[in-house]
Amino acid sequence: RYATWRPRGTSDWLVMVTVDGVGWAGDARRGRFLRAGDAVLYRPGTPQWYFTPPDAAGWRFLWCHFHPRPGWAPWLQWPEVFPGLG
User: Fold this and answer.
1) Is the overall model pTM greater than 0.85, yes or no?
2) How far apart are the C-alpha atoms of 18 and 14, rounded to whole Å?
3) Roughly how many angstroms between the first and final C-alpha of the chain, as a whole number?
């Protein structure tokens, strides 16, 4: 089991990629299930709530907090699940 709640988010960006199993990512009101191959991108200051759902066998994911270089801006224009989460 795994769970993280950051009501104020972080000052950096966070990208997460699901390798295996099932996870959930969103904020306190909305989100989405993540399965192998799914990726999400949290913008700075976006509340972060992600966890292993109770009925999931497990969740294996890779993550990285980062401060992008100015030239990376086009790579950070993901379709949004909701404001702040791509």
Assistant:
1) yes
2) 13
3) 24
Nearest to 2 by CA among 64, 81, 65, 57: 57
Each residue's pLDDT tens digit, 1-11 = 889 999 999 99
Spatial contact of 70 and 7, defined as CB atoms under 8 Å apart: no
Q: Where are the alpha helices (DSSP H) in 1-86?
A: none
CA distance 48 to 39: 14
Beta strands at 3-6 and 48-51: parallel, antiparallel or unpaired: antiparallel
Contact 62, 23 (CB under 8 A): no
Residue 73 burial (CB < 10 Å; 0-12/13-18/19+)?
exposed
